[in-house]
């Protein structure tokens, strides 16, 4: 695998930022299937590579990986901040494909993440189902409307800066429960979903709520749970199972 750390100016954010990209060795016969791998609230674009062996795991699947930096934005066009949803859903894929041989085909594009990144990955899959065939959430902060009750995630001030009021979030596409309902009611192809959470994780209840909601709506959702808390050992094991599960064509 080859690894590139890209420092670039984002016209969406109006500032310089960074992302890591890892590519399989050798010239591709076609553009590489691509996983957009999203970090958690206290992390950045380096943590997945520093704390797991995801580079080695991706190599076994011939998979390119794009890991952008979004700070503590919750992958959202913030009410009082920067437009990180537009950045992650539009600008990052466009720039990455202009610099690297990454596939544009829906069936060869996927999103995955942990904690806040699990929320972001499902958000990409549910809101951009024409561009992502699958989404993976590891210990995801999936119930944004209850973040303050679920555990030490966002302060009230951070919540307001990102999402605004409770009512505004509840009826918006930033609420994954509402986004899932909107997709289920439409005609767009639904992505496959992989969800896992440790039973000792403070976000376990939120994961159960989203699992039950998605299944009620008829989504193709694979769910697993077991002993584990909110920590890198669980996510290192989980990303391996998720990559094995990904619906990569031709393997």
UniProtKB/TrEMBL annotation:
Pfam families: Esterase (PF00756)
Gene3D superfamilies, A to Z: alpha/beta hydrolase
InterPro entries: AB_hydrolase_fold, Esterase-like, Mycobacterial_A85_antigen
SUPFAM superfamilies: alpha/beta-Hydrolases (SSF53474)
Signal sequence interval, chain numbering: none
GO molecular function: acyltransferase activity, transferring groups other than amino-acyl groups
Name listed for the protein in its UniProt record: Esterase family protein
């Amino acid at each position: 695998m080859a690894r590139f750390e890209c420092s670039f100016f984002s016209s969406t954010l109006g500032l310089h930022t960074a992302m890591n990209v890892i590519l399989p060795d050798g010239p591709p016969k076609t553009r590489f299937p691509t996983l957009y791998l999203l970090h958690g609230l206290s992390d950045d674009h380096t943590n997945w590579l520093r704390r797991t062996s995801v580079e080695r795991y991706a190599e076994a699947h011939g998979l390119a990986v794009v890991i952008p930096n979004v700070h503590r934005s919750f992958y959202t066009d913030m009410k009082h901040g920067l437009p990180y949803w537009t950045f992650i859903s539009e600008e990052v894929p466009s720039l990455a494909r202009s610099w690297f041989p990454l596939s544009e085909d829906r069936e060869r594009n996927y999103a995955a993440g942990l904690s806040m990144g699990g929320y972001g990955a499902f958000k990409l899959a549910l809101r951009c189902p024409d561009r992502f065939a699958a989404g993976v959430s590891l210990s995801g902060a999936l119930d944004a409307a209850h973040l303050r009750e679920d555990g030490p995630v966002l302060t009230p001030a951070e919540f307001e800066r990102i999402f605004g009021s409770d009512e505004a979030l509840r009826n918006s596409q930033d609420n994954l429960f509402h986004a899932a309902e909107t997709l289920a009611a439409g005609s767009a192809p639904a992505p496959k979903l992989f969800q896992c959470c440790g039973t000792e994780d403070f976000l376990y209840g939120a994961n159960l709520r989203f699992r039950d909601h998605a299944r009620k709506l008829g989504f193709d959702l694979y769910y697993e749970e077991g002993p584990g808390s909110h920590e890198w050992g669980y996510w290192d094991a989980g990303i391996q199972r998720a990559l094995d599960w990904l619906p990569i064509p031709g393997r």
